[in-house]
Amino acid sequence: MKILYLEDDANDVELVRSIFDAEGYAYELDTAITRDDFISALNSRRYDLICSDYQLPGFDGLSALAIHQKLCPEVPFILVSGSIGEVRAIEALKSGATDYVMKEHLQRLGPAVRRAQEEARERSERRQAEASLRRSEELFRRYFDAGLIGMTISRPGGQGWLQINDTYCRMLGYMREELLEKKWTDLTHPDDLEADTAQYQQLLNGEFDSYTKDKRFIRKDGSILYTIISVACIRDADGSHKYNVVFIQDISDRKQAELALRKNENQLLEAQRLARLGFWERDIVKDELFWSD
Questions:
Q1: Is residue 120, in this structure, part of any structural domain at all?
Q2: Band of the pLDDT at 271, cuts 50, 70, 90?
Q3: Of 36, 31, 30, the residue nearest 59 (C-alpha)
Q4: At a CB cut-off of 8 Å and minimum separation 6, what does 89 contact?
Q5: Do the strands 224-235 and 55-56 form a parallel or antiparallel pair, or are they unpaired?
Q6: What is the mean pLDDT of the chain?
Q7: Is residue 139 in a domain?
């Protein structure tokens, strides 16, 4: 642990060292006395903890705290003083200090440092999580806008669209303004509506958080759009249903090919049936002729 201690009294520096030694910390302690020393140290090295006396010649702890907030606000800052007073201590905490320890109660420094380290670790983890979330949201935004497939974001329970990408608009043949006025049920093929509504209700009930299924939509021109949709429920930290993300993949060409193949197969089977029937009829005629002789 790299520590910077702003203190002009060598005896107090040694007392603080003894506290850190007694706590069993592995540490390196740099000291600063003046404002210039303090700024130079912060600009030359990355510290894990800053301790500061409140009253120094030509400088003070609150001024040091202000500099700390500009240069390295993520580093814990503990005031160690014998003369700060409660009012100034509260002012320091409001201004960004992590804690304060009175010199007559220097035994509190060890627990204060541990608490400051834990808070700093939590803040670091939170910043990393937030940065990761921002990266994920940016990636999702790029994917959403890229238009590789149709995508929608909607409020739960049929409360309306939040976002619709251009691809989904093109798939259904609507302008964005027109589509935003439509409900999901308005666009669903009537024969799929009952099953689709039932499955969506299960999602709302929390029986599962996502599902994938074949679904038919009705385009603006009345034609059928064959799709595979994937619906995912996005929840808040408290578990409440925040919104739904839906991915829509157009499989109309594949479905039309399947229908055409099925039609051809049916025609072939029918032709084979008729062909067999024709042979049977000829055989029947031959038998009748034979017996008539």
A1: yes
A2: low
A3: 36
A4: 79, 100
A5: unpaired
A6: 85
A7: no
Residue 212 CA: distances (Å) to CA of 8, 37, 199, 208: 69, 63, 10, 11
Q: Are 81 and 100 in contact (CB under 8 A)?
A: yes
Residues 76 and 175 in one domain: no
């251009």: which residue's tokens?
Answer: 166
CATH number for the domain including 169? 3.30.450.20
**CA nearest neighbour of 109 among 222, 234, 7:** 7
Print the domain residue range for 152. 147-250
| Alpha-carbon span 139 to 131, nearest angstrom | 12
Domain of 6: which CATH number? Answer: 3.40.50.2300
- Cα 119 to the center of its chain, rounded Å: 23
Residues 6 or more apart whose Cβ sits within 8 Å of residue 221: 173
Among candidate residues 131, 6, 21, the one with its CA nearest the CA of residue 75: 6
Asked whether residue 227 falls in the same domain as residue 168, the answer is yes
Q: Each residue of 133-152: pLDDT tens digit? A: 788 778 778 878 887 899 99
What is the SS3 assignment for 241?
A: strand
What are 109's two structure tokens?
Answer: 């420094």
Which tens digit of pLDDT belongs to each residue from 21-31? 998 889 999 99
**Whole-prediction pTM:** 0.52
Show the tokens assigned to 193: 């509506």
β-pairing verdict for 210-218 and 161-164: unpaired
Does 138 map to a domain? no
Number of domains in the chain: 3
Q: Among candidates 106, 104, 46, which has minimal Cα distance to 78? A: 106
Are 13 and 91 part of one and the same domain?
A: yes
Same domain, 13 and 75: yes
Residues 283 and 218 in one domain: no
